[in-house]
Each structure stands twice: as structure tokens, then as C-alpha cells.
């Protein structure tokens, strides 16, 4: 019985697409803009594993670059959303928030219908985190 279990475990480790295989990195940029202060946008290059979510990439970027920090809040119905970037936080009373936009490689800017916890970046996109008012 033990040899059969051991053989099955070794087979799983060799199957394509298992967790043991590294996936390709998807490079993209994160652009931080403050439309209220009209400061110069700051661009950070980062990556995520293929089919990885934006939240994971932001965590990786924050851990590897001291010039990028963010916080997020977990909403029970809508999932994670940006609370602050580089010390600037959205405030409900001021009607300010961090807007998520995506500039595709062909230059189109879109507003995704999902947030940082579900958005899956594609290679060479520009993820724009824009501080603005509603």
C-alpha cells in the first residue's frame, strides 16, 4: 500500500500544471496618480504569475520597493479595495478614493468591472491607481 501511495505522490509532482511548476511572469507597470494635487505620476514596474491577481502583485511590489506602500480593506460583499497608497488615504467625508484604471498596450484606458482582488493583469498593461473624487 505504501509503495502505491508513494508512486502516486511522485506522479502528481511530475504532472504539467501542478503547483510544483513555476509559471511565467507577466510584466506590467503600476502608475500612481493624484488627480487632486496634480503631482507627477510615479511608475513602478512589477510582475505577477500568469493568471495571478493584482492584489498579489501589489503585495510583491510593496515588499520589494520601499517607495510603494498600500493598504486595503476587505469589504464583506465586494472583497478587497484600496484604502491608501503611499500614505494617501481616501476619505468618505471628502468623497475621495483610489480609482482603478487599466491602460491596455494599444493605448485604451478602461475601468475594470472588478477590483484589486479579482483583476488579472495582462502583460505590458499600465495599472493606474488614481486618487480622485466621486
UniProtKB/TrEMBL annotation:
Signal peptide positions (record): 1-24
User: Which GO molecular function annotation, any one, does this entry have?
Assistant: cobalamin binding
Respond yes or no to whether keyword Signal is given for this record: yes
Which UniProt keywords are present, listed alphabetically? Signal
Domain of life, per UniProt, equals Eukaryota
Entry GO CC? extracellular space
Which GO biological-process labels does this protein carry? cobalamin transport
Q: What is this protein called?
A: DUF4430 domain-containing protein
Write down the species.
Zoarces viviparus
Amino acid at each position: 500500500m505504501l509503495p502505491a501511495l508513494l508512486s502516486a505522490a511522485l506522479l502528481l509532482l511530475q504532472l504539467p500544471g501542478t503547483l510544483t511548476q513555476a509559471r511565467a511572469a507577466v510584466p506590467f507597470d503600476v502608475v500612481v496618480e493624484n488627480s487632486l494635487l496634480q503631482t507627477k505620476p510615479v511608475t513602478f514596474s512589477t510582475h505577477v504569475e500568469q493568471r495571478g491577481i493584482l492584489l498579489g502583485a501589489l503585495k510583491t511590489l510593496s515588499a520589494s520597493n520601499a517607495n510603494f506602500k498600500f493598504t486595503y480593506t476587505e469589504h464583506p460583499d465586494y472583497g478587497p479595495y484600496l484604502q491608501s497608497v503611499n500614505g494617501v488615504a481616501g476619505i468618505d467625508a471628502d468623497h475621495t478614493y483610489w480609482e482603478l484604471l487599466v491602460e491596455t498596450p494599444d493605448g485604451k484606458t478602461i475601468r475594470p468591472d472588478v477590483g484589486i482582488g479579482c483583476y488579472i493583469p495582462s502583460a505590458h498593461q499600465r495599472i493606474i491607481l488614481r486618487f480622485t473624487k466621486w
